[in-house]
Task: inverse folding
């Protein structure tokens, strides 16, 4: 019979997603068929399953930690904010509609039965399910229709471990306050606490740990230190605290759009030993960049307007005139073209693009979601030349249809045995755009691109090629080892077993 454990947090961004990935890795290492589950995820980082369904990136990397392919059942509801008040609702991997918060809250009871069925189908196939909550279970204004925190724990009949972030301060108040706001039958489910992101000597916490256990009756299962590991973050909150790494040979500036999406595209770039990736929102921050990237966006026209209002658009064009290469991915690719017409995503109508690529984009009501194999065109010009002919794997998530001059196609997709022109480049090769996400996860592409940038600066080529898949696997193992050292994993097993026996 399937066992389950759920991690909930005292707030958003306390590290639940990473700790869930760590538990998935530990259970996988211990020989259990394990899968992650998050009933409702709000994030602009998403990916595509092998069967073309869209789901949150957090559950995709958790599935990788568990050694399995992602399955949309692991994240049946994905909310992708399009503005401060509206979000696109993705159900079981397909766009259902756009809703404001009040409408969605009223809609949630209709989702409960579907979520229950999806969870039960996963439970029939795995030994252990590791569930993740969202935000905090103490959001009492949302409790009556909750489907992602205690409401989900009730559906799954599973125990809960509460995660608290000590780095943000007030950790004991957060633990005590969260538990105090839960109803009695909810507090009963909380079997342990993990304090996360601690910097310093854990001995200094000893008295506090004893007192919080005495006050709440809930044991602290461990104190996780701040780990220097490189794993995907769930949403843009993480970018607000990114510290610039030390200067390296190659400096890449990713424009931090207000609706930035799929910034996990750049994890593989930042993992390169000679590359510094910076997320920038000021025009002067582009001045030292060796490459400027416009990333994906969930509201392309709104972000294009923002680029102009902040003078970032003007500085991108100026740096391009200075000879700095520019790249656009998905929404960023659309912005680099001649024109965009949108009555679907933002309703802002028509707008001129930055004019660096010979493309015209019209937004369509049907979203493209697919994994693809692709091949870079041959005889690419300029700094793109070393990328010619390289084979790629990636995925597309977009609502725009972009017209491309077939003679200017940067790469060709393989779809259903057909070769389709996609992506484009400027005549001199200084500008490159594509819809392909996951571009930099391709070792040969990224190695060749970085070496091309090195050559432009008169630097010798880097011989060693980073195997990004192996690098990620090593990071999962580092996380699992640390969690075994600092958390009572045997107690976690006991919590799951005792709850299963009680339920049985």
Result:
């Amino acid at each position: 019979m399937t066992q389950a454990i759920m991690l909930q947090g005292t707030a958003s961004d306390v590290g639940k997603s990473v700790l869930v990935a760590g538990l998935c890795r530990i259970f996988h290492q211990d020989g259990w068929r394990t899968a992650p589950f998050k009933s409702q995820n709000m994030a602009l980082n998403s990916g595509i399953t092998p069967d073309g369904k869209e789901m949150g990136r957090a559950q995709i990397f958790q599935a990788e930690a568990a050694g399995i392919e992602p399955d949309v059942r692991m994240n049946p509801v994905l909310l992708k904010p399009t503005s401060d008040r509206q979000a696109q609702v993705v159900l079981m991997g397909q766009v259902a509609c756009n809703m404001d918060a009040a409408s969605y809250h009223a809609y949630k009871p209709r989702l409960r039965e579907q979520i229950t069925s999806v969870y039960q189908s996963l439970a029939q196939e795995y030994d252990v399910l590791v569930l993740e909550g969202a935000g905090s279970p103490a959001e009492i204004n949302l409790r009556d229709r909750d489907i992602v925190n205690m409401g989900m724990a009730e559906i799954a009949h599973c125990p809960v471990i509460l995660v608290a972030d000590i780095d943000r301060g007030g950790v004991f108040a957060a633990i005590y306050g969260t538990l105090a706001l839960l109803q009695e039958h909810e507090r009963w489910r909380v079997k342990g606490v993990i304090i996360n992101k601690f910097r310093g000597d854990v001995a200094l916490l000893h008295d506090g740990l004893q007192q919080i256990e005495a006050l709440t009756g809930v044991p602290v299962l461990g104190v996780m230190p701040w780990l220097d590991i490189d794993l995907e973050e769930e949403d843009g909150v993480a970018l607000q605290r990114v510290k610039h790494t030390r200067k390296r040979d190659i400096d890449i500036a990713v424009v931090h759009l207000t609706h930035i999406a799929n910034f996990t595209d750049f994890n593989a770039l930042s993992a390169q030993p000679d590359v510094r990736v910076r997320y920038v929102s000021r025009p002067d921050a582009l001045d030292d960049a060796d490459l400027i990237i416009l990333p994906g966006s969930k509201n392309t026209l709104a972000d294009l307007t923002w680029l102009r209002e902040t003078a970032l658009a003007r500085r991108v064009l100026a740096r391009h005139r200075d000879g700095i290469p520019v790249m656009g991915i998905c929404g960023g690719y659309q912005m680099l073209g001649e024109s965009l017409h949108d009555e679907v995503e933002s309703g802002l109508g028509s707008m001129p693009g930055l004019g660096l690529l010979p493309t015209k984009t019209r937004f369509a009501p049907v979203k493209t979601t697919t994994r693809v194999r692709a091949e870079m065109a041959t005889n690419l010009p300029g700094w793109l030349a070393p990328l010619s002919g390289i084979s790629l794997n990636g995925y597309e998530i977009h609502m725009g249809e972009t017209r491309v001059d077939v003679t200017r196609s940067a790469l060709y997709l393989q779809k259903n045995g057909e070769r389709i022109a996609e992506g484009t480049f400027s005549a001199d090769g200084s500008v490159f755009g594509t819809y392909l996400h996951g571009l930099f996860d391709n070792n040969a592409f990224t190695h060749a691109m970085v070496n091309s940038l090195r050559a432009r600066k008169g630097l010798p080529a880097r011989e060693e090629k980073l195997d990004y898949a192996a690098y990620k696997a090593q990071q999962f193992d580092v996380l699992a080892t640390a969690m075994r050292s600092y958390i009572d994993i045997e107690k976690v097993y006991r919590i799951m077993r005792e709850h299963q026996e009680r339920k049985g």
